[in-house]
Specification:
A 4-stranded mixed beta sheet has the order 1-2-3-8, sandwiched between helices. The two termini are 20 Å apart. The chain is an alpha/beta fold.
């Protein structure tokens, strides 16, 4: 569970997790909360709760590395587990759904997805999320088993070990989870409003996250630029042949209007810049990968024996 500036919601998060753990003593629970460089009192609150309940472990990162890196840190610290559940700290994904995930896992599924039937976001964020989930499977090479599933879900031991072998720096968690395969099941639920506080993922970060998903799992942008280039070249060849033929047979001299010239130059320049931009997106991600910097640095960890 990554945590970033969630002091307003953490008391209820701990309360509901403790109620869940106490209500199902047949499982040996361990909760890994990753403090992703919080600037408020989230770190102190987590340390206080963890000191009172040995089932909680706090992983403090050296700075804010972002949600995906914090998620990877929690997954990396969760060793020797039979099943691992990933979720947000804001309680939009209700902990009370976890027993249903565990039931599907006990029935044989290695990956259990919590698929959203409804969600509470509104406005531009809601429109963008719906558009992304509707189009991701059509635009990428990796098809998601459930397009409306996010971070919330469960991975069994085999799927988890396979997932840990994926070294990407620009990570799109649902796509990576789908890539590992294994037997998949799903549990349908209604996503709730935040229990308290404001969303910590800005629109800019959400757009960056969507682009990571697209460029990590699709070569379609490169192909689209290639197709656009072929189309423009074909149109240019046809127009060139047309005006050449008109000149040769003496019908009229090809027009040399300023507006036509400027329009063609701007159109071709725009296509070229778009192509360079697409190549830059892929090249930037290659650059991140070859540097091989760690996804996160752990400052402190409250280990439990």
């Amino acid at each position: 569970m990554p945590v970033f500036n969630e002091e307003a919601v953490l008391p209820e998060t701990f309360t509901r997790l403790v109620q869940l753990f106490d209500a199902h003593p047949q499982y040996h629970w361990r909760a890994y909360l990753v403090d992703d460089g919080s600037k408020d009192s989230s770190g102190d609150l987590m340390a206080q709760y963890a000191s009172d309940d040995q089932r909680f472990e706090i992983v403090t990162l050296a700075r804010n590395f972002g949600f995906q890196s914090a998620l990877a840190a929690g997954i990396g610290c969760a060793e020797n587990v039979d099943a691992l559940i990933t979720m947000d700290a804001d309680l939009q994904d209700p902990p009370e759904l976890i027993p249903a995930l565990l039931q599907r896992w006990e029935d044989g599924a290695q990956v259990v997805l919590a698929a959203r039937r409804t969600r509470q976001e509104t406005g531009l964020r809601r429109w963008g999320m719906d558009l992304f989930h509707a189009s991701f499977g059509r635009l990428t090479d990796q098809k998601l088993t459930q397009n409306n599933a996010g971070t919330f879900g469960l991975m069994g031991r085999d799927a988890l070990e396979a997932f840990r072998r994926l070294p990407e720096r620009n990570r799109f968690f649902p796509g990576l989870r789908a890539w590992v395969g294994f037997d998949v099941a799903e549990v349908i639920y209604d996503r709730q409003e935040r229990a308290a506080g404001q969303p910590k993922q800005s629109l800019r970060r959400l757009i960056s996250y969507a682009l990571d998903g697209l460029f990590s799992f699709s070569r379609l942008p490169l192909r689209a630029v290639t197709y656009a280039g072929l189309m423009v070249a074909m149109i240019g060849f046809i127009l060139g042949a047309f005006y050449t033929l008109r000149r040769l047979i003496g019908i009229e001299v090809a027009q040399t209007g300023f507006t036509t010239l400027v329009t063609l130059v701007l159109f071709l320049g725009g296509i070229q810049l778009i192509g360079i931009g697409v190549l830059g997106e892929y090249l930037g991600r290659i650059y991140d990968e070859v540097k091989q910097r760690p996804l996160y640095l752990i400052k402190k960890r409250s280990r439990r024996e």
